[in-house]
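Good morning C.,

I know you're traveling, so I'll keep this short. The sequence:
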Amino acid sequence: MPWAAVIGSPIKHSLSPQLHRAAWRSLGLGEGWRYERYETSVEALPQLVNSIDADCLGLSVTMPCKQAIIPLLDIVDPMAAAVGSVNTLIPSQGLLTGFNTDVHGIVSAIREARSPRGLGEARRATILGAGATAASALAALGELGITSSTVAARRFAGPGSILAAASRLGVEIHQVMWADEEAVAESIEASDIVISTLPLGVADELAKRVKIQESQTLLDVVYAPRETGLVRAWNLGGGVIAWGLDMLVHQAHQQVRLMTGRDPDLASMKAGVRQCS
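The tokens, ready to paste straight into the viewer:
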């Protein structure tokens, strides 16, 4: 019986099961197929990976396992290796391969949001946060033509350093400490694209002081609740919003392609997940 799962911790509220099941239905699949949630710590990860059987289509990998899973894989896709983060595991012919579809999700969500406004090429960007998703955001900005970005964070070193990711990706970053609110606000106001990878509420006070223009685009990866402090600031200024939920849908769409070899209906996935969010 074919199965797939999302792994990580906490995993209780993950929307991956709804997304993948909606995708399977759009393909006429899913009868007897299972998509599960497996609460998994970094310590328990090797045992789970070793338990993968021939019926497994793949795993959606979330925190804190996106970096910890890399040494357990046989092959790591070049983009995932450059970013230093794997969010998709695909077993095939006895080999375990890791991919990163977060980059695809970010790029697609931003392009989808900017296209109706007819906005031209973006030149300046700011990333809020410096974790695994921020590294994916850095790669996504590179695909959007931005090779030098400002990153605002409390710290930049440690496991999965965004500095190391920038070096592997061949892009430049300008570091701004999160405590320097004026510098962070100035960077946001000067950016064509802002990507926030921060937890809910962290940017709320900062959002109250920034003035946003209609030509600026925000992607806040927080998708529940839909309206964050940054989203309110963008709405007030009439800016463009690329929704965190759309990023989630696009990255899952790419995961389904990798797991099934088929192209699911994106609209069905969006409809399915919005009924549950």
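Safe travels,
E.
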